[in-house]
Amino acid sequence: MTLTFAVIPTHDRPAELRQTIATLALPQERVLVIDNAGTPPVSSVPASVIRDEEQPPNLSRLWNIGLDWAHEQAAGEKYVVALLNDDLVLPPGFMDAMAEAMDRTGAVIAYPDQIGRGEDWHNTVQGPIVPRHNRLTGYAFVLSGQAGLRADERFRWWYGDDDLEWRAQAMGGTVLVGGVTVEHLHPNASTAGNRLLRDQSKVDKQAFVAKWGQSAWERKPGETT
């Protein structure tokens, strides 16, 4: 049996957070909400809640707090962890579908079909990692606990998900799970509404290129969307 956990960093979206937790449909003890300086603080949600005051946030650090929590909760059992935004509508059976896809393919990260193609593929890198347009959904993805992946905290706001994906490709691969579509209610709203986060995104891109030698947003010659 594979234990399933979810980690949800949040900031001032109480209604959306409750909806995300409700559609996730996990037991309360398997969900961790990280309240990043919310006003008022998060309360009365069916989840464990911890408070983090750092502003602007380091999203990679918040993910790592949650990943460490899930590892402790699993107590040596096989497990997976979903890293989720706080503004999602998740389809029924989301966690089971992600866990089953990783079991079937050996991938260490699974993510939903954000563009509705219904594809299901397993990508294991054999040689240099190359960017592609069909990228990991940074707002909703699931990691294998046994892989031991942690986010690189140099990527404070953007590119932490891309870095995890590229590292996962070099391990057991990543799998896009066809037919599982997550509704993301406010894509890029936090970045668009906060100059500090927009500036941080530029710094994160520079750090990503310095680490990998290219941007995750580039495409191979001749590749189309």
UniProtKB/TrEMBL annotation:
<feature type="domain" description="Glycosyltransferase 2-like">
    <location>
        <begin position="7"/>
        <end position="128"/>
    </location>
</feature>
<dbReference type="Pfam" id="PF00535">
    <property type="entry name" value="Glycos_transf_2"/>
</dbReference>
<protein>
    <recommendedName>
        <fullName>Glycosyltransferase 2-like domain-containing protein</fullName>
    </recommendedName>
</protein>
<dbReference type="InterPro" id="IPR001173">
    <property type="entry name" value="Glyco_trans_2-like"/>
</dbReference>
<dbReference type="InterPro" id="IPR029044">
    <property type="entry name" value="Nucleotide-diphossugar_trans"/>
</dbReference>
